[in-house]
Design a protein that fits this description.
The protein is of the alpha+beta class. Helices cover 34% and strands 19% of the residues. It is built from eight helices and eight strands. The strands form two sheets. The chain has a six-stranded mixed sheet with strand order 2-1-3-4-6-5. Strands 7-8 form a two-stranded antiparallel ribbon. Strand 7 and strand 8 (238-240) form a beta hairpin. Helix 6 crosses helix 7. The longest helix has 18 residues, at 47-64. The radius of gyration is 18 Å and the shape is globular.
Length: 254
């Protein structure tokens, strides 16, 4: 499925003339091996079809790699994207490290503590036709993950978007590397900052931006990909991973 360029002419960005809610254009990244990520695009369709198809794709990817999926938490995370519309979404599935992350470009959550309270929901009558809408989504995600020894993380910035991370594997099986344990050069930090500001980039664009040769930029980016801070898809585009965003956040708090 391919994402179509732009909005559907004459249609509301949240739905169509029949009153249906359309899903966001979504890209699903799946770790294959080493530094290789494949991806699949989900174009806007009826939200109920999108919820089923994306949930099935994530659950199947985890099962194919021998990871027992928290299907309920995944379904709730997918359904929760209805609150971010209109937006674009990136989903990263990394079975070996035991996580699934969701990043949207929606309006964000003004008060996460309020959103975490049982019963709080912004779902209206139309949204309730597609999702549970009872204000328990975050709690269900957290409980389902905790039962398996995992955890639920969320970060949101009003006007920018929301990031949700489902850590599936128990702590003893997760990648224990933390951002401040990784020693990066000033040039590598500049690369992370550029990707964060651009949303995505390429090796030549980064080399031009920071004023180095393509081969030099490639070596730095290779180390960032190996360290899990940058994701490279099959087309060569570069994106920040959760750890990459966390590293920049850590630096900003020093």
């Amino acid at each position: 499925m391919a994402i179509k360029d732009g909005e559907v002419e004459g249609k509301d960005p949240l739905g169509d003339s029949s009153g249906r809610i359309l899903s966001p254009p979504t890209r699903l990244f799946l770790h294959r091996s080493g530094n290789d990520f494949g991806w699949v695009d989900f174009s806007p369709v009826d939200f109920s079809d999108f919820s089923h198809d994306l949930t099935f794709a994530i659950v199947s990817a985890l099962e194919d790699h021998g990871v027992h999926p928290p299907a309920l938490a995944i379904k709730e995370a997918v359904d929760n994207l209805i609150h971010a519309l209109p937006c674009e979404v990136s989903v990263v599935v990394y079975p070996e490290l035991g996580f699934v992350s969701f990043s949207d470009t929606g309006p964000g959550i003004p008060d996460i503590s309020l959103a975490m309270q049982p019963g709080y929901t912004t779902a209206g009558s139309v949204e309730r036709k597609y999702i549970r809408g009872a204000g328990l989504g975050f709690h269900i995600m957290a409980a389902d993950l905790e039962d398996a020894g995992g955890r639920f993380l969320i970060d949101s910035r009003p006007g920018t978007g929301t990031y949700v991370r489902l850590e599936i594997l128990p702590e003893r099986l997760r990648n224990k590397a933390t951002p401040y344990q990784q020693r990066l050069t000033v040039r590598q930090v500049s690369i992370l900052t550029h990707i964060a500001e651009s949303g995505s980039s390429t090796v030549p664009a980064i080399a031009s931006k920071i004023g180095v040769s393509v081969s030099t930029a490639y070596r730095d980016i290779r180390d960032l990909v190996t360290g899990g801070l940058v994701i490279r898809d099959s087309s060569g585009k570069l994106f920040l991973s959760f750890q990459g965003r966390r590293y920049l956040k850590y630096l900003s708090e020093l």
